[in-house]
Queue: 2 jobs
Job 1
Amino acid sequence: MLTPSNKYDAQIEALLSKMTVAEKVGQMNQYNGFWDITGPTPEQGDSKRKYEYLRQGLVGSMLNVKGVEDVRKIQELVVNESRLGIPLIFGFDVIHGQKTITPIPLGESASWDLAALEQSARVAAVEAAALGINWTFAPMIDISRDARWGRVMEGAGEDPFLVSKIGAARVRGFQGDDLSQWDTIAATAKHLVGYGFAEAGRDYNTVDVGTSTLYNVLFPPFQAAIAEKVCTVMNSFNVVNGIPATGNHFLQRDILKGTWNFEGFVISDWGSGIEMIAHGFARDLEHVAEIAANAGSDMDMESDAYASHLEGLVESGKVKMEVVDDAVRRILRVKFELGLFDDPYRYCDAEREKTYILHPDHLATALDMAKKSIVLLKNDGQLLPLKKDQSKIAVIGALADDKNSPLGSWRLGADDHSAISVLEGIEALSVPFTYAKGADVSIGPETFIEEIQINETDKSGFAEAIALAESSEVVIMVLGEHGYQSGEGRSRANLDLPGVQQELLEAVYAVNPNIVLVLMNGRPLALPWADDHIPAILECWHLGSQSGHAIAATLFGDHNPSGKLPMTFPRHVGQCPLYYNHFRTGRPGPLDLVFWSHYIDESNAPLYAFGHGLSYTHFDYSDLVIDASDQKAVKVQVKVTNTGAVGGEEVCQLYIHDKVASIVRPVKELKGFEKFYLAPGEAKVVEFTLTEAELGFYNNAYEYVVEPGEFGVMVGTSSDVGLTGTFELK
Ligand code: GLC
C-alpha cells in the first residue's frame, strides 16, 4: 500500500524541480503497446511518433505491453535515452488472473470468502509481475443491479457492503504490504463512478443517479479501496449529474482528492478524455485537455489530449502549473513506491516466467477459488451429488466441451482454449459418461474485440442428444453463455439461454426429466422454466483455468457447494434493474386493487435472491439474541447448526432495516457476514456487532449520521430467509 506521503517527498520535489513542462506533461501521458517491440524500430506513422515520444521522455506509462523482453526493451529506451530517465509504469488489465485464470470476478464474489479472494488476487499479481507488469486496472468495484450490462461479470454485484469488502480484499492481494517487492503491483479502483448504472443496462449509456445514491451506494466501495491505500483510481466513461467523470471536478477533486484525501493518481479510462467531445462537453482535443487536467484526471489513457495540448495550456494559463505539478507528484510517488527508481528493471527478470507462470500452487488456488464460487441454486430430491458409480450418465451441451468460455472475456494475458473443460473434469474422476453436443452456442470467430455470433438455427445435433438422453439414467446439461457474451461492450437485451439452448433443454427434458443443469454464464440469467422443471441447478459462472475440475468435484460430491449469489437473479428481464436492497415505495402492496407497485404480467419477486445458495447439507438457524444495551455496539447473536449428514460451509448473513429515517432507507441492507465450516451435527454461535459504521448513512446534507428509531434485524442463510427481530436506538 502507499506509505505515509512524506517518505518520497524530497526525492519527488528534487526531480520535479529539474523537469521541463514538456517532461512533466509526458508523465501524464499513457500509450498502448503499439508495435512488435522486439522488432525493427518503427519507421513511420503513429508507432514512429510514439517511439519518438518515448525516447524524449514524453510518456509516463504504457499499457498492454506483453512479456519481460518487451517491457525491458521499452524501459531501456526511456531510461537510457531520455534526458531524465524517469522509468515507465506498465499497466495491464489483470482482472481475474494473468496466465492462471481464476473465476470471473462476479463468480469469485459468490464465494464470500475474503481470504480466498485476496489469495486469488495475490496469485494474479505474482504472475503479472513475473511478466513485467507493475500495475493492474483492477479491482472493478462498480455496483451493478442490471444483469443486462455486460460488465456485471467484472464486478462484485449489487451490494455496497459486500463490494466494499471484496474490493478491499482484492486491493490487498494485488498490492501486498510492500509495493517495492517485485511480486506486488499497484491496483486500480475503478470506475469512478456509477458506470454500472448505465440506463437499460446498455454499456457506455447515460447514467443518471441521485446524489443520495452516489453517497450511500456508489461511493462506499471507493472509500473502502482508498482506506486500503489503493494506488490509483480510474474514472469512468459515463456522465455523473450531466458531467463526464473524466471532466468532473466534483468527483475527482472535491470528493476523491478532497473529502477522501486520496493520495494516489487518477488514470482516465481508454479514450474517456476525447469522448468528452462526443458527449458534447468539450469542443475539441485542446478543450478536453483543459477540462480533464483541471478536473483532476492525472493521466491520459490514449486520448493524446495532454501530449498534444497541455504544455500550451500551461503557457496560456488555462491550466496552472500547480495542477500539472500535483498530477506529476502523484504519478512519481507511485513509481517511487513500486521501487522503479531504485531499479527500473525490478519487474524484468525473465527467469521468473519459468518459475511462477502456471505454477502448480497457482492452479491449486484457481481450483479452490472455482469450487468456492459455485452456487447450488436448486436440488430437489437431493439429485446432487451424483454417485461416481452412477451408470448411464449423459453429458449434453457445447459448453461442456468448451475450453475457451470458462476463461471469460477479460483474459488478455491467458492462452485461449486453456481451461479444463467439464468433460475433462469428469474424465479425470474416471466416471464413465457419454457426450452429445446437442447444438453449438456460438459460431464464427471468438475474439475480445469482435461480436460473438450465436447459433440461432442449427439444431442438427438435437436428435443425437435426445436419443442419448432417452437411453440414459441421468443427464448433465451444460448450458449458458459463451465467454464473450459478457464483459465490455457485451450488454444483452435478453437474459434467457442464448440461441437454441432452451429448445434443447426442453427437448431433452421431454424424454428424461432427470437433469442436472450446469449453468456457465457471465451474468444473472432469467430461467423460470428451468426453475419450474429441472430438479438440480448449479450456477458455475465462467470459472477459469480449473473450471472442469471444480464442476466435476461438485457434481460428484468431492466438494460441497457453499457459494451465495452476489447479485439477484430475475424471473424476467423486464424486472431489471432488480435488487434486494430496494426502497419500500409508497405503495409496496399487495392490494386487491391494481393501484400498487407491481406488474400485471409478472411477479415482483426474484427467481433467486441476493445471498441465495444451497448446500448438500442443511444449516438450521436458532436462538437469535439482540442486545442493544450498548447503543454504540449492538450485539446480534444466532446459533447455526449443521443438521445434515455431510460437512459444509455456510455464509451467515446479517441484514438491517432502518425503518424510519430522514431519507428513505432500503428494506434490507447487508451489514455483516461470516463464512465457516460445520461438521455434521456441529453448531456455532455467530456474533455480529452493529456500530455507527453499520447503522449510519449519508443524509440529505451528505453528512454521515446515525439516527434514533427502530431497526429491523434479519440473520439467515440469504437475504430472503432468516430469523428476525428488532431493536431501538434512543
Ligand atoms: C477499457 C475499460 C477499462 C480498462 C481499460 C484498459 O475500455 O473500460 O476498464 O482498464 O480500457 O484496457
Job 2
Amino acid sequence: MRVIINEDATRVAIEAANLIINLIKRKPNCVLGLATGSTPIELYRLLVDAFSNGEISFSSVSTFNLDEYYDMTPGHHQSYRYFMDQHLFSKVDIKPENTFLPECSGKQSAEEVAKQYEMEIKRRGGIDLQLLGIGENGHIGFNEPGSSLASRTRLKTLTPNTLEANSRLFEDGEFQPTLAMTMGVGTIMDAKQVLILATGTNKSEAIGNMLLGSITSACPASILQMHPHVTAVIDRDASIDIENSDYFELSESNRRKL
Ligand code: F6R
C-alpha cells in the first residue's frame, strides 16, 4: 500500500485532489466512487476550483457514492445526495443522470435497489477510483466491524460508535437514521484503484490496524491490504499509531526521487 503522510489536513486534500484531477485529465469519462463525511470536503472544494479554472471537466464523468441513509425523503438536508449537491455536483458540469447514490425509500425493496446499483456500476465499466474515508472503528463505507469482507451493496445497521461519531452533524432532537444502504466491502475491492484519506488522532488507531493489523472483519479497512492499488493519504496526527511510519515516509521519498 502506498502511504503518503502529510503535515496537515490541507496538504492531504491537495495531494488527494491532484490524484483525482490527473485521473480525470487522463480519462475524462472515468467512473469515480465518492464518499461523504468531513474528511473529503476540502478535496471537493479543490475539485470545484480545478473545474472553475478550466483545468478539468466533469461532463463525461460518472460517480457512485459509497452510501446513503435508508428511507430519506428526496432532497432531505441530511441526505448524502444533498451533501454531494452542496459540495460538488451543483458546482461543476457533471450531468445529474451520471451521479448515483444507493437511494432507497422505505417502499422499495432494498435487495432490488442494491442489485440495480451493482449492475449500474458494472454497466459503466466499473469504478476507476474509489475515494474512502475511514471510521474510528475501521469501517469503510458503512461496512461496520463484523461485515463480510466479500459483501456487496446492501442495507446495514449503523453501530452506536458510528451514530455517536455522526451525531455532531444532527441538531438536538433531530431524527438521526440508524440504517443505511452501502456498497459492500467486495464492491469497494472491485474498484481499480482506492484512495483512502484520514486526518486527526481519532483515526490513528484505525489507520494502524488497516495498514499493519491482521486482515479481519473487526477492522473492515484491513482488507485493503489485499488490494493491488491503494493510496492512503493521511496527516501526521492520523499516523501516530503506525508502528513503522518512518519506513513509509522513506519509501514515499524514494518513490518521488525515482
Ligand atoms: C461516508 C462514509 C464513511 C466515512 C467515515 C469517515 O460516505 O462512507 O465511511 O468516510 O465515517 O467520516 P468522516 O470523514 O466524517 O470522519
